TrEMBL record:
This is Acetyl-CoA carboxylase biotin carboxyl carrier protein subunit. Residues 1-70 form the Lipoyl-binding domain. It comes from the Bacteria. PROSITE patterns: BIOTINYL_LIPOYL. PANTHER family: OXALOACETATE DECARBOXYLASE ALPHA CHAIN (PTHR45266:SF3).
Amino acid sequence: MSQVLAIMAGSVWKILVQVGDQVDAGQDVVILESMKMEIPIAVDFPGTVKEVKVSEGDFVNEGDVMVEFE
């Protein structure tokens, strides 16, 4: 199982995928907001979204799992 982790602490500003979505390598899946900057988080691999573990507005720390893929 592959995962997308938070690369820094911040708030989840926008979730761009839903369970069952197919994603391509390089596709943005979550946008974090930190220090008034928007930081897009992309996947490094193709796959299918198995579970979204965060909600918009959640605070995440570096290394937290945000999305899991099959």
